[in-house]
């Protein structure tokens, strides 16, 4: 089923329900944390990794935190939703969206100043769900996508670019930090990211700088 929603300012998002994966519940707190902890005064180019239909990235654009947003995902339905939102709002000049399972597979489109993501949090099995596509959005088998992301993202970033990545498993905090540092990023902090909503387990927010 296709839905639509008006964000706080001007953008109206179009999306399939299976492409949200909690982004709608996390985006306001993400914006709050970015404004609270940001190290840069402006971000021209933003990027949402594992974007689905782009709930985080379009919120950044709607709230004028970024001037341009790029999305990537390995599922066509999510990218189609991102592009449909851009077309419906006449903002195609401010949006790029790419079907890709890797950072290395995304075209060079300019240095990124801000990276956000709510990536898959399950490493070894697909969670039970009535929606198979929704289940696939939740799985990063053996952290393959995370490892590739942290290995290759630095080459796409501007100087002192910032990354805010939502994660769930606090027990492997050191694994996330190690992947980022091995990829040339500097770990800043690990912020509280508890969503005050029934059924949502506690999360954390990784903050890196290039």
Question: Characteristics of this structure?
Answer:
single chain, 6 helices, alpha/beta, 210 residues, two-stranded antiparallel sheet, globular, Rossmann fold, seven-stranded mixed β-sheet
CATH topology: Rossmann fold
Q: Into how many domains do the coordinates divide?
A: 1
> CATH superfamily membership, which one?
Vaccinia Virus protein VP39
- The pLDDT mean sits at 89
Write the element-wise H/E pattern from the N-terminal end onward: EEHEHEHEEHHEHEE
Strands side by side in the biggest sheet: 5-4-3-6-7-9-8
The parts where pLDDT drops under 50 for at least 5 residues are: none
How many individual β-strands?
9
Characterization of the model:
- With 210 residues, this protein is α/β, with parallel strands linked by helices.
- The chain has one domain (2-209): 3-Layer(aba) Sandwich (Rossmann fold).
- It is 29% helix and 29% strand.
- The protein has 6 helices and 9 strands.
- The protein has helices at 23-37, 55-62, 76-88, 132-137, 144-152, 173-182, and strands at residues 2-6, 12-16, 43-49, 66-73, 95-99, 112-117, 157-167, 186-192, 204-209.
- The chain has a 7-stranded mixed sheet with strand order 5-4-3-6-7-9-8, sandwiched between helices. A two-stranded antiparallel sheet has the order 1-2.
- Strand 3, helix 2 (55-62) and strand 4 form a beta-alpha-beta unit.
- Helix 1 crosses helix 2 and helix 5 runs parallel beside helix 6.
- The longest helix is centred in the first third of the chain and has 15 residues, at 23-37.
- The termini are far apart.
């Amino acid at each position: 089923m296709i839905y639509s929603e008006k964000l706080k300012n001007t953008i109206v998002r179009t999306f399939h329900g299976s492409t949200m994966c909690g982004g709608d519940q996390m985006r306001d707190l993400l914006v709050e944390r970015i404004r609270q902890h940001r190290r840069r005064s402006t971000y021209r180019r933003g990027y949402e990794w594992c974007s689905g239909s782009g709930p985080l990235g379009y919120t950044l654009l709607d709230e004028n935190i970024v001037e341009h947003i790029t999305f990537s995902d390995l599922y066509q339905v999510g990218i189609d939703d991102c592009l449909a939102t851009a077309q419906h709002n006449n903002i195609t000049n401010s949006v790029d969206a790419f079907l890709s399972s890797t950072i290395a597979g995304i075209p060079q489109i300019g240095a990124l100043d801000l990276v956000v993501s709510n990536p898959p949090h399950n490493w070894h099995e697909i969670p039970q769900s009535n929606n198979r596509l929704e289940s696939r959005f939740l799985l990063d088998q053996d952290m393959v996508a995370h490892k590739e992301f942290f290995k290759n993202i630095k080459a796409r970033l501007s100087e002192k670019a910032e990354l805010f990545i939502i994660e769930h498993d606090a027990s492997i905090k050191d694994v996330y930090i190690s992947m980022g540092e091995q990829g040339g990023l500097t770990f800043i902090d690990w912020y509280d990211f508890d969503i005050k909503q029934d059924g949502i387990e506690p999360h954390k927010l990784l903050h890196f700088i290039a």
